Amino acid sequence: MIRHTSVDVPKGTCYGWADVPVAATFEQEAAETKRNLGDTVFDKVFSSPLTRARKLAAYCGYENPVLDDRLKEMNMGDWENRLYKDIEREDPAIRKWYDDYMNLTATNGESYRLVYDRVANFLDELKKRPYSHVAIFAHGGVLICAGVYAGLFPEDDCFRHLTPYGGIQEFEMKDER
Fold this sequence. Notes:
With 177 residues, this protein is an alpha/beta fold. It contains six helices and six strands; from the N terminus they run ββαβαββαααβα. Helix 5 crosses helix 6.
């Protein structure tokens, strides 16, 4: 699993499903990601449909990955593309969400639990496919959910394991065919 590169949004911006642009450092970051992937041959390549993930996939040589909405970042609903400080002034629900983002949804958005369920659904389906080596270009929250799913780290401490921009998280799943 490969996390997209840095994005070009003001610090403190809430984004998830927003199709934000990549940072000016894209070429450098993407080149490092491509080097880290090496000459690995993948049976199949999947990507979030959001531009920041697809652009990295294309840079790494995968111009036509299979796009899957289940690989999108957390839907931040009404908070998308807004500064957290502005949200805090205007929507008191964010205070409760800060305390229980695992279970509470962003206003008109998703919770961690909902993201986990869709990522787990994708991975459950993937295990039934005849692939032995797959690349998935996605987002930090998706990689966290996949890491919990794969048993790489516990859910109660999962956000300490956020893969850096352009980083790669590897794991093995048992074949269920």
